[in-house]
Automatic annotation (TrEMBL):
rRNA-binding found in the keyword field: no
This protein's UniProt keywords: Carbohydrate metabolism, Galactose metabolism, Isomerase, NAD
Lineage: superkingdom: Bacteria
Name used for this protein in its record: UDP-glucose 4-epimerase
GO MF annotation: an example: UDP-glucose 4-epimerase activity
Amino acid sequence: MKILVLGGTRFFGVHLVNALVENGHDVTIATRGLTKDSFGEKVNRIVIERTSPDSLANVFGDKYYDVVCDNLAYCSNDVKYLLDNIKCGRYVMTSTASVYDKLHMGITESEFNPHTYELKWCSRMDYPYPEIKRQAECALFQEYSHFEAVAVRFPYVVGEDDYTERLYFYVKSILEENPMHIDCLDEEIPFIKSTEAGQLIAWIVEKDFTGTINGNNTGTITLHEIIDYVEKKTSKKAIYSMTGAEGPYNGVESFNLDTKHANDLGYDFPELREWIYNLLDYYIQINK
């Protein structure tokens, strides 16, 4: 299949592109042309300005793709600008657990319905992140229902290539003896590994279901467990202080995403604890 990927040059987008290429697809990546990639001749490349409807019209006006994988749709206008100017058979959008208003254990896809939520046309800075992502889903399912579309909802994505360094913050702070202010030590936190996120989207590409779908690795872990592990591995002690650097996951409440929908469709998620400690070991190693 001819597949277009927007956001394929870093983080889980790289794993998505690699999986699509390995599966034999004809892959094109669309970027601003600023970030180098390591795909060589395995992919085609197009330069676009994602937030410019004129740029998208000029580039995609006469092109058709069997599937578009969009990791860069942050708001309703992003969806509009792209889908008004491209032809495709299937559209897979990366969404987020942040669309859910109340976080708790076992969140199902039905707890946010983009078909009935009030649609507002907005740009990326118009509302807080959870709301602009809700609006991206609303635009997709309310205004572009003629597309065969899927919105994939992820919790926190982490990996060796995680440019946000949110999880790495805790390891680095312990090793460098920097005080931290953490208010969620014992909350259960869900993650999905960046490689898994890419592989899940590549799997969805070849399926025929539509709608919303949750994706996270099986199980959760607390920051208390993470910090205990790092302390034991390094013989360093975390320094807690109300005036310390704010933990990136501060304010989070225990939650995870119910993945029964994906499981019923045939996708099995590995256990979180099968890989999270290896990732912590990697963070420890690069900080030496």
